[in-house]
Each structure stands twice: as C-alpha cells, then as structure tokens.
Amino acid sequence: MKKRSKPIFSGAEILASLVYLCALSAGLMYVLCRDYMFVCTVIMTAVSFGVYMIFYALRRKKALSLLAFIVLFMTVYAVCRIVGNPYRSPSFYEFIFNASDFFDPALAGMTILLCSLIIGFPICYFTTYLPRPSFLLLPSFVPLILAARLVGRIPLGLLVFIAVGYMLAAFGIARPEYPADNAYVDDKRAHIERVAAIGMAGVIAAALLTVIPRNDYTPMIRYLEELTKRTSAYGRRVLSEFTESSTPNRGNNIPSDNALFIVFTNSPRNVSRQSFDVYEGDEGWTFNSDFSRGYDNWEKHRSRLNINKLISDLKKGANNGKLEKYSEELNKLEDVPEIYSLASAQMTIRIVDGSSTSVIMHPSETINVNVTSSASTPPNTYRNAVDEIFTEKPMPRNAAYVANYYYNQPNEQFLKMLEKVDLNTLLDDAAEEGVIESAVRDEFVSESRNAIAYYKAGLDGSITDEIQTVADEITAGLTNDYEKAIAIEKWFGDAGFTYDLGFVPERAEADYFMFDSRRGICTDFATASTLLLRAAGIPARYTEGFVLRDDAMDSYGRYVVTEEHAHAYSTAFIEGYGWLEIDGTKYAPIGSMSGQITRMLTIIIISGVILTVIAVVFHRQLSELCFAAVYRLRSGNGKIRAVYLRTRRLACNIAETDPGSTTAEEVRDIISRTLSLEDEASEITNAANKLFYGTGTPDADVKKLYRDYKSICRMKRSRRK
Predict the structure, then answer these.
(1) Residue 115: how many CB atoms within 10 A of its CB?
(2) pLDDT at position 481, please?
(3) N or C: which end of the chain has fewer CB within 10 A?
(4) Strands 345-351 and 400-405: what pairing?
(5) Element (H, E) at 535
(6) Burial class (CB in 10 A: 0-12, 13-18, 19+), 472
(7) In 10 A of CB 388, how many CB atoms?
(8) Is the peptide bond before 90 cis (omega within 30 degrees of 0)?
(9) From CA 125, how far away is CA 121, in angstroms rounded?
(10) How far apart are the C-alpha atoms of 581 and 363, rounded to whole Å?
(11) Which of the 8 DSSP states describes residue 611?
C-alpha cells in the first residue's frame, strides 16, 4: 500500500472570513457597547482580523502557531489584569453584565481585545487548520448567548448579517490539496481533535448559559422617570414633575421574565412606583403639577399617621375617664393588637438590572426610607402629595434601600363609628384633653384636607353619565366610604369582567372596557375603579407599581420581581384609615390565556423555522446520524444491504448516474477511481454480491464494512470541490 499522507490546505477565502468577523463583531458590540456600536465594531473587526491573519500566516508552522497563541493570550491577560482592577468603578464584570448601561473606553478596549482573541483564532482554525463549516457556528454562540442572557434579543438585521457572514465563510472554506501519490484514508488524530473541540465548545456554551446572570437591557428605565424641576416653597427645597403619563392597554401584553429587582420582607404588600391624577381617555393618565411637588423631612410627618395607634390611644383615653362624649362608642371597639399599634414592618428593595434612577419604589404607609448602597452620605429623599418618593439625584446603579412602613388593616368597627361621630371633632377633643399630641391631630386633619382638595381637583369631566350611573348603582344603600370602595372592587367579579393579557382592545377608553369588552389587563381595571371611586365621592388616584405574588418567591425566601409582576391599581382615601389599595383584578377570572397561547405559537413557529433551516443546511450530517442510529438495530444481512445501498448512492452522486441502473462492479470502479479506496470498495461490493446474487454466504465483518463506508464518506468530503 502506498504511503499515507495528510492533505495540505491552501487556506480559507480571506474576504469571506473578514465579513464573518465583522458580523460577529457587530453582534457583540450591539450587546456590550450599544451607544458606541459602530466605532467599536470597526475596531474589533480590525483587531480580530489581525489575530486571524497571524494564525493564517503560521498555518503550516504548528510550533510558531502555538507560541503566537500563548503570546497573544498572555498579552490579553496582562491587559485585563491592568484595566480590570477589581477596585476600579465600574468594574469589568459590571461592564460586561449590565448590558450597555454605561460606557467606559478602557473597559471597552479590554473587551475588544478579549473578544477578538476568542473569535479570531477559532475562525482561522475552523477555516484553515481544520476546515469544518458547521464548526463556524460555534463562535456565533458568544454574541447570541450574551444577547439571550442580557438584552433579550439581537435585532433581526444583525441576525441576518451574522447568518450571511457565516454562509460566506462556510462556502469559502479552505480546500485541501493532495500530493499526486496520495492514498489518504483518514487521520484518526484529526478526528479525535474534531470531536474534542466540538465537545469542549458545547460544555463551555452550556456553562455560560448557566452561569451568566440573566438580566434585561435596563428594563426598569421604562418604568422610572427622571426629575425635571427643582423649586422652593416656604423656605424648603422642592422637587417636582418626575412623571409624564401612564401607558394605556394596546393589547398583546407579553411580559419578559427578566429580574428587575429583589425584595426582602416578611410582610408583603404591593410596591408603588408612581401615581397619576388626570385621565385623558385613550392617552391614559397624566399628572397634576399641583400635587407633584416633593418635600424633604417628610418622615416625621408620616410617622404620626398610625391609625391603629390612634385608635388604641383613643380607647385608652376613654378607659381613663376622658372623651366622655365618645366613651360609649370607643368602648365597643375591640382592642388593637400591640403589634399593629406600635410596630412597623420593613422591606428591603435591591435593583438588579443595572438601572440608575431617582425613584424610590415603596409600599403604602411608608414612614421612612434609607438608601444603603450609595456614597458615604445617603441622599435626601422627597415625598409628594400622591405618595411618590424620590431622591434629588439618581442613585447608583443597582441601588438598595430599606423602607419602613405601617402594616395596618382597616378597622371596620372604627369606620362604622365615624358614621355617627365627626373625626375632626373627635381629634380636636382628644388633643385638648391630652389623649393624643396636637401634632398627631394636625397630621390626620391635614391628610383629610389634602385628600378632599385632591378629589376636587380630579373632577375634570372624565366622569361620564354612564360611569356615574354605575357608581350610584354599586354603592346604593352603603353608608361609609370603606364599604363603597370594597363594593366597587368586588363589582368587577360580579359583573363578568375577565383578566386577559392577550386581548387586543378596539379602543383604549374606559367606557369601551366597562360597557363593551369587559376584558382587559390591570391598567383597564385600575382606570375603571379610579373613575368609579371618584364618581362615588371618594378621593382616588391611579397607581402603578408591582405586586409581590407567591410565585415570585425563590428558594431563599426573596421576592424576585420581573416585568410579569408589574401591576396597576387604585388608591382610595378612606377617612379613619388613610389611603387604601383597591384592585378589581382580585375578583376577575383569568381569560383564555390567549397571550400565552400566542407566545407558545410564536415559539413553535420560530423553532420550526430554525429546525427547517438546520435540516436543509445539515441534511447530509443529519442523514448520516440517522443511518448510524438505525444501522445498529438491523440484522447482519440488513447491515450489509444498508451499507451497500448507501455506498452506491454516494458513488452515483460522484459519477452523476442513476443508482437503479448502476451495478456493484461500477460502484467499486467509481470509488476506486475517484477516491483511491479500492480495498474498501471491494469489501463492500463483494459482500453485496454474495447477499444479492447468492454467489456465496455473506461472511463479511459488518463492523469492518461500516468502517469502510465511513472512510469512503470522509474521503469524499475531504475531496469535495
């Protein structure tokens, strides 16, 4: 037998590889340096192409190639050590995993060097050293994995660019050149290298998918606005107008599952971010600047508004012989549990998506907020009349803060008592007799007056006659605001409303939701309930925030809040309690889940398209995998038949002849002439002749025949033009 020799590669088509490098660079820079994507893409393309050309020039000198790789690796490592100092702010980790929340030229340069080595060497390797078109998909996993874990998706245009670059590189792959006396069968060592390379790449990709944090591209910024004005009033600094408008329901509300922030608490409540005052029909809600001014030093005022402590103090005063006019009614009240009258609950909120904002998300009845992950001096917090809390300047990215709040529940007995007793008169008498402090009386009176002023400002013509009629019907016969508010909340369940994320409304107005579709999302319910409450004479505002559901709790007892937990509800003022959350979705059944069905269908269609493309591009490889799997299940004669038929089809493809009219001898001649594998072809065709024509009992080694067939396949691939 002639001496076996390895093929010599002439090198990949350099222009095609350059396009592919540019496509991958664009995908990576879109994820990591979005604001400076164009400049960084040009730089990374040049650097990665330089890495490619270094290894291309050394393709026939393995020792120098290895040395070049070590030098480049150590250079990149040294740069990373210098630039990526763990004490610098921001850190390299933050730059990579916060998805373009900020840009740092030094960290961007470090990223470009690292990524250029990561993709430049493999592309050269799989187009020149070990030419395998399918392996060129591996470098594209880098931007795709980062996009899936950080920004959710890469734009379709970039995906098409990456796909086109891949196809150009695959079509322009290196062509092997063989010496004239070549009798090349197969290089087992090269086969082991290929298997090891693809296995290692698969393990690395799986590990990256598991380890890399799953963060969206700063989605909280869509929920949180910046401050727009700073003024002064009564000698105090004032911040105002940091909100614009709500987002009305337009349909197809498919939230992402990317984590926005984490909450630690033993007393879960809805988390409010902002409230709106003026309803503008299909444009949603906007704010009234008269109530958007925020004041500092608000904590001492809020801490006095503990309704349960007030009720407890009033009852104690009556038991001590004071407040004689009210003693009969007060003594009927049940004792307020000590835990509710004195203690407050605590909630720690930590943003995890890299957002930097001034808005403090918080539960209702918050009495103070402490920002814990800021500079040495915590920023001042401000609160306005609609219970929005914010800081003067944006907090650091991924800020954390602790909110303390009263975890009170409405005391229905006390609310019933107020049907007979005027609260303001009771408070005046209690302060005069020393039952409560005058400052406490002033806070409750002020809160009530502010609520009445807010109510009057909200009557702007948004209450239609139809809404007024419904409100009158719901609240007919009820004697206090608390009962009216609860009746309005329950009405959505009694009147046949349905909560449906996927429903697409014809119009976004409240009238359409209330009287036509009766199907929608939380924003529809919150808008309708706010208007109904106002029509019933109750001060109410439209509030947006997040709900802490049980499904948000992880194994560590934390609430991991995502876009799915974004929620809208009404906040109504009930004299004798304060601002009460009203949520009509609690009583509405969930619809047909059309939104989830739409998402599932979309996933199925996209998956089908991807599988179809894979089947078309890699149909030969898939066919070989299926054949290998089924081959082991066949009988001995079945294996001989299958190997021969596959070999005949392969030979006929080479010679462009009809398999049905090609004999075994012709198959052997084609394989011997074109692939120089006469021994392998003879073993297969001889076994087939014995089986088909009965010229002898097939006694061939079926395992050897299969190895012969694989050798023929490999040689055909290596010589494919």
Answers:
(1) 24
(2) 94
(3) C
(4) antiparallel
(5) helix 522-535
(6) exposed
(7) 24
(8) yes
(9) 6
(10) 11
(11) H
Q: What is the rounded CA–CA span in Å between residue 544 and residue 402?
A: 20
Residue 543's beta-bridge partner residues? 275, 569
The predicted structure's pLDDT at residue 124: 86
φ and ψ of 406, to 5 deg: -80, 135
What is the Cα–Cα distance from 253 to 564, expressed in whole angstroms?
10
Query: Distance between CA 307 and CA 406 in Å, rounded?
Result: 9
Give the angle 487-491-492 at the CA atoms, nearest 5°.
140
Sign of the Cα torsion 595, 141, 38, 74 reads positive
Strands, sheet with 578-582, edge to edge from the N-terminal-most edge strand: 271-276, 540-546, 566-574, 578-582
Kindly state the helix (H) or strand (E) to which residue 279 belongs, with its residue range: strand 278-279
SS3 397: coil
Q: Which residue has the tokens 């009927």?
A: 332
For the chain, the helix, strand and coil percentages under 3-state DSSP, each to the nearest 5: 55, 15, 30
CA distances from 265 to 166, 269, 345, 365, 407 (A): 50, 9, 8, 15, 12
Q: How far apart are CA 683 and CA 669, in angstroms?
A: 13
DSSP string, 622-654: HHHHHHHHHHTTS-HHHHHHHHHHHHHHHHHHH
- Nearest Cα to Cα of residue 419 among 347, 478, 489: 478
Helices (H) and strands (E) in the chain, counts: 25, 21
Structure tokens at 130: 């070990």
CA torsion 226-231-237-243 (nearest 10°) is: -30
Whole-number Å distance between alpha carbons of 547 and 541: 17
Where would I find the H helices in 577-618? 594-617
DSSP string across 10-75:
----HHHHHHHHHHHHHHHHHHH-GGGHHHHHHHHHHHHHHHHHHHHHTTT-HHHHHHHHHHHHHH
H or E segment at 140?
helix 137-146
Of the candidates 189, 190, 209, which has an alpha carbon nearest to the alpha carbon of residue 201? Answer: 209
> What single DSSP character describes residue 234?
T
Beta-carbon count within 10 A of 14 CB: 14
- Determine the Cα–Cα distance for residues 361 and 273; give it in Å rounded to an integer: 5
Contact, 327 vs 283, CB < 8 A?
Answer: no
- The whole-angstrom separation of Cα 57 and Cα 65 is 9
Cβ atoms 502, 598 nearer than 8 A: yes
Q: Phi, psi at residue 704, to the nearest 5°?
A: -65, -40
Give the per-residue pLDDT at 563: 79
Unique residue bearing structure tokens 């003067």: 392
Q: What is the mean pLDDT of each run of 10 residues along the chain (721 residues)?
A: 48 80 87 78 92 85 82 83 61 60 73 87 81 76 68 68 80 59 44 57 56 43 46 44 60 63 90 88 82 85 90 90 90 72 79 78 92 70 89 82 89 91 93 93 93 85 89 93 95 90 80 90 92 95 90 84 87 94 89 53 61 66 75 78 85 80 85 85 85 66 84 77 44
Alpha carbons within 13 A on the beta-carbon side of 280: 14
Sign (positive or negative) of CA dihedral 316, 321, 325, 329: positive
Q: Closest Cα to residue 430, out of 320, 339, 573, 306?
A: 320
Reduced 3-state DSSP string for 427-486: HHHHHHCCCCCHHHHHHHHHHHHHHHHHHHHHCCCCCCHHHHHHHHHHHCCCCCHHHHHH
Q: Where would I find the beta strands (DSSP E) of 483-576?
A: 498-499, 519-520, 540-546, 559-562, 566-574
